[in-house]
Amino acid sequence: MKKKLLAIFLAATMVASLAACGSSSSETATDKETASTDSAEADNSAAADDATDAATADSSDPWANVDTSEHVKITYMTTGDRPSGTEAKYEEMMTELNKILTEKVNAELEIYFIPWTDYLTNYNLTLAQMDGTVDLVGTASDWLDAWPNSKNGAFLELSEDMLKTYAPQTWASVSPEHWDMCKYNGEIYLMPEDNYAQWTNHGFIYRLDWAKEAGLDRVDSWEDMTEYFRYVKETYPDIIPWDSDGTHHTQLAGGWISSHTNFVAIDGICSGALWGGTRDNLYTVTTPAYSDTEMMVEFAKTMKEWDEIGVWRTDVLNVGSTTNRDDYRVGKVAADQHHTQTWTDLVSPTSQNKIYQDDPDAESGFFYFGQETGNVTALSITHGAMAVSAGSANPERALMVYDLLRNDPECYQLLCYGIQGVSWDVNDEGLRVEPEGYNADTDNINQTTNFWWGRNDDLEIRDATRDWDKIDALYAEYDKIKIDYPYGQFVPEVDDIQSKINNVNETYVNYMKQIAFGKYSGTAEDIVAEMQTALKQAGIEDVTAELQAQFDALYK
What is the mean pLDDT of residues 527-556? Predict the structure, then answer.
């Protein structure tokens, strides 16, 4: 009923707002219905003049014809822990932000944090209440159940008219193709973060200066990585080259597969990312870990070699946690395995990265998975997206607030960086710096609001501590070879096969713990054959067949 009433209201609002949009022909049609035949021409001429005047007067206010007389509170739900230690600066920022929101749309914002502990369960439980607790919802198709929540009715359908009326800048900035990728069953449910450059493809961050000592201009392959690790262990025997905590098994396997095939994984089906297509045959489902025996045997052999070199601790599978990243910052390890965004930090001469202060020759390279084959897939534009809760009492105002947070420079900078002169400032080159008297323990609220659902490169202020020459060079390299994520509209129906997916994934993970760290007995051929037999018994072929049927229905 709420949606029907909203649709009626929107229709009325759109008719009333046509003058502000400069649609004089529609106004003329309306006037002809209500005016007498004798005076129609004169009335229509006057109406056209009034429409022109209104459009001119209201050009700076896209919501001039929207009723905002009632002050409302809009609650934005995001994953992450509430700011600790910086509460005072956070509250100051929210006060300033709400002054602007009140002035522009007569609304104030409150942030509802879902702590990281058991975050997905608590996130979905909060949404399921449908009690108006939240209005705007940060979501994602690959890690925050965006499509299941759309399917289950937790999110509001966003019509084109609704978006044009209440989020006009967002509507105009997103391409028709990207809006299509935000649809489920033909309806828009998400507003994508599609104008923010970020790369979360994984790889190895390594000491480029040490690689050069080993005779490598840079690390371009897994073979180079092996040579690098062997050199480090021989030259710096007291260093653990990569002090892994033993949890990187599926990332290593996925990285190997990306580098030795043109596989493109489907996001969100399982942690092992087992199913997908290939760059030359995107819509035929395949599982290289199961079907490409020769490749997986070679992986097992290489990981056994790394184990024998001493790349990680001998008890790596029982470690649980390490300080590897912090140790990399000070030169105590030779590599870290994570995504490109992490490298952009570790490659830069920040105060934390003491290797550059202690050693003027220190450099950090990045060997990205898929480098040998040029197999890089851009992040889905719905990796971060904003939705409106179907339980929201004020969905129209929620969209207006989001439109400001995403597109208004002053609102954006407050939300993402805090108060200028307190939590950040700008230097002569236009880069973001710490202001005089800055205290990171109390003043740093950069991204503490966790606005990962509408970041906008047009409004971003680059961090002066980052090495943008190196970062831009790598991003340019990616742009030459990347493909866009091709499965953004695929919403797998897995209810009937979920138990098999779980069994297959558990089997794969258990074997990868052994294979990816070289901790298996017998030959590489034996362990891979054993794994593939177990995967078949767990139902991998049945899952593949069902996913293929769904692909055929959607794409063929």
Answer: 97
Quick one: which of 206, 197, 159, 208 has its CA closest to 179?
A: 159
Over residues 44-68, mean pLDDT:
59
* CA gap 387, 66 in Å, rounded: 21
For 355-385, give one letter per residue: b (16+ CB within 10 A) or e. bbeeeeebbbbbbbbbbeeebbbbbbbbbbb
| Helix-, strand-, coil-residue percentages of the chain, each rounded to 5 | 45, 15, 40
The answer to whether 417 and 182 have CB atoms below 8 angstroms apart is no
Could you tell me where the beta strands, DSSP code E, fall in 194-238?
Answer: 202-207
What pLDDT was estimated at residue 19? Answer: 34
Q: Shortest CA distance to 191 belongs to which of 210, 201, 178, 207?
A: 178
In angstroms, the CA 432 to CA 342 distance is 19
The CATH number of 202-379+486-555 is: 3.40.190.10
What six digits make up the tokens of 314? 């001998």
Q: How many CA atoms lie within 13 A of 18 on its CB side?
A: 16
How far is 18 from 23, CA to CA, in rounded Å?
5
Q: With beta carbons less than 8 A apart as the criterion, state whether 182 and 189 touch.
A: yes
Decide yes or no: CATH 3.40.190.10 for domain 72-197+381-460.
yes
Name the β-bridge partners of 123.
none
For 212, left (φ over 0), alpha (ψ -120 to 50), or beta?
A: alpha
pTM of the model: 0.81
pLDDT in tens, 425-439: 999 999 999 999 999
CB of 489 closer than 8 Å to CB of 189: no
Helices (H), 464-539: 468-481, 498-515, 524-538
Note the pLDDT of residue 440: 87
> Tell me: the pLDDT tens digits for 368-410?
999 999 999 999 999 999 999 999 999 999 999 999 999 999 9
pLDDT tens by residue, 484-519? 999 988 888 898 999 999 999 999 999 999 999 999
Q: What are the beta bridge partners of residue 377?
A: 483
All residues at 6 or more sequence positions from 345 whose CB lies less than 8 Å from its CB, including other chains: 353, 466
The CATH 3.40.190.10 domain(s) of the chain lie at 72-197+381-460, 202-379+486-555
Compute the average pLDDT of residues 526-542.
Answer: 98
- C-alpha 65: how far from chain center: 35
Confidence of residue 446 (pLDDT cuts 50, 70, 90): confident
Distance of CA 110 to the CA centre of its chain: 22
Taking the C-alpha atoms of residue 216 and residue 208, their distance in angstroms, rounded to an integer, is 9
Classify residue 159 as left (phi > 0), alpha (psi -120 to 50) or beta.
beta
CA dist 141 and 453 (Å) reads: 12
Helices first, then strands: H and E counts in the chain: 24, 15
